[in-house]
Amino acid sequence: MDGKKVILSGIQPSGILTIGNYLGAIKNWGVMQDEYDCLFMLADLHTLTVKQEPARLRANTYELTALYLACGLDPQKSVLFLQSHVPAHTELTWILNTVAYPGELSRMTQFKDKSLKHADNINMGLMDYPVLMAADILLYQADVVPIGADQKQHLELTRDLAVRFNNRYSETFKVPEAYIGKVGAKIYSLQEPDRKMSKSDENVNGFISMDDDTDTIMRKFKRAVTDSGSEVRCAPDKAGVTNLINIYSLFAGKTVAETEKEFENVGYADFKLRVGEAVAAGIEPIRKEKNRLLSDKGYIDKLLSEGAERASAAAYKTLRKVYKKVGLLPRVKI
Predict the structure, then answer these.
(1) Catalytic residue list contains 196
(2) Which of 103, 157, 204, 269 shows a CA-CA span of 20 to 30 A to 79?
């Protein structure tokens, strides 16, 4: 860490990401790495709150690591690591559990939603998820945390736990702020443009995966929902077209106004074709680089090991302070 503000970002390795994840977060990491001290965490422990197939989880973890690197994450500038490789995360979770209350955890919207969705597996890990997330953030004294709308409540709990601990044991944790990117924050389904694009969408035509090849991308955009009009412009009653304009603008590096001007007299069919071409041109080099990286898992293992060492140095610095504050004896080497 070199004195810049610290930012921590974590994504679960629960499957391939969509262009919504890419445009909303990962695409901006190149610039972010120059402005902040960045820690990028693969939140594999969080993934376990929902039943996983072990071999698939391991494969997903390699794939997400390779995708991070292919999208421009520089392990020389940033710290890239697996959550499970730094035991301090679960150690701090236990301490934070002593200042967290069952009532506030049971009121978390995401806990309620996932309990309904996974009624056969309502486990304590699911309820304690926000406390582990708080530990993830507070361990590194993060100043800012990139979050989506579904994580705002969890960040508020993180802030509450930090303040509660600081009040009880004296100043220990930084109280983090939300970081919301200026562009690309929301990309919507190609089939239901009033819903956020999601990899879990049962309609595969609703999302573009970062693993989709050019033919698949073109086919999905040809089927994208528009409206009964003919003008390529943003408007509240043109959700499908507005979504396509935003996607094209972000991949082509243009403003919305420039995109509207470019397609002023262009029909929807040709417009959708051009959007697909822009997306395919942006994704294909990333997909090829990701596959190249996956051919050498030893290289990925080495980077993750080095990242875990760097993350652990920062994490245990905080944890030692926490243990001292709560009255635990330090381990003395004899």
Answers:
(1) yes
(2) 157
